[in-house]
Amino acid sequence: MSTCNEINLTSPHTLTIMTDCYSTTAPIFRSCGVQIPLSGAQLRNSVEINHYVPEHLRKYAVLRAEGKDFDATIIIGKQAVHAHKALLCVRIPLLRDLLNANTSGDIVLPEIDCATFNCLLECAYTGHVTITGTNVEDLMRGAAALGMEAVMDACAGFMQSRLRADNVLSLLAFCRSIEYHKIDNFVLRYVDRNFVHISNTPEFLKLSVEELEALLSRDSLKVEEEMDVFDAVTNWLDVDPSRRQYALRLLECVRVPLIPEPIINDAIEKTDWVAANPDCMTFVEEVKDCVHHIGRKELKPAIFRLRQPSFENCISPTFHRAFF
């Protein structure tokens, strides 16, 4: 049975209402400042979430609509947003802590934009929030800053259903930036299943060497043959000549003993970044000697293991540290 942590948006206290409007073009998720497609055709443009609001707090939505009894002011840039302290203390954890430490009722929030805060404040009062491809990152980042876990989960569910080979690595980077881990298993399982496609995307070529090393070291990568991994390393190294300094480090992540020796001789040893690096050539010779039981140097056991994409326990500690 899979251990995938998929976000459930249909908890007893959450009602999910899908809009009837379908998209014929892909919404855009602006992850880490890069605009990338979030979905294909026939996925809804937006999702409306209605979270449960305790009965004793529902009166504050009425008071807010009437502009009455405000006793807290949130300063965002040059704008002041008025609210009710009793509701904020229950519904928004960060503001509860700030208000308890500040008896004046005036709070300054420098790290969130006013439009996003107003959406999240509306959710605090009414339980309602509309998630779209263009606001999901801002909402999730704002919810993370304010400690609104239910909104974070709803945003994660929206993105989770729109994963693609060309956005999954950006999503990993985004989750890392806000320390959100609930969909780790789901996202990493997707990476495992679609490694070859992902390795041919621009996002893959932007990985740091640490991230790439952690990815290539995963036992659960689904590849038809180990040369797929070698080709991915070649693509990454070819982006910038300065990356050649990592050639041996990355070659050691390729399970060379699993590659037939004729291919090692005719393909790997003749690839320019291997042939031009004496350490890489020595490593390949040591692998061949070890396979023939004549080697003296003990190689890392991992390079002899078959990759087994079981997707059961797909987060390795090394990969988690590198990405998160």
Q: How would the global form be characterised? A: elongated
Q: What percent of residues adopt helix (DSSP H or I)?
A: 40-55%
Compressed to H and E, one letter per element, the order equals EEEEHEEHHEHEHHHHHHHHHHHHH
Largest sheet: 3 strands, antiparallel
- Our count of helices gives 17
**Helix-strand category:** alpha+beta
Q: How much of the sequence is in beta strands?
A: 5-15%
Mean pLDDT: 82
Question: For the terminal residues, how far apart are their CA atoms?
Answer: 25 Å
Q: How big is the Rg?
A: 25 Å
Would you count the extended β strands for me? 8
Strand order of the largest sheet: 1-4-8
Low-confidence stretches: 1-37, 311-324
Topology:
Elements: E1 14-18, E2 28-31, E3 34-37, E4 46-51, H1 59-66, E5 72-76, E6 79-83, H2 85-91, H3 93-101, E7 106-108, H4 114-126, E8 128-132, H5 136-146, H6 149-160, H7 168-178, H8 184-193, H9 195-198, H10 202-205, H11 209-216, H12 227-237, H13 247-251, H14 261-268, H15 272-275, H16 278-291, H17 317-323
Parallel strand pairs: 5-7
Antiparallel strand pairs: 1-4, 2-3, 4-8, 5-6
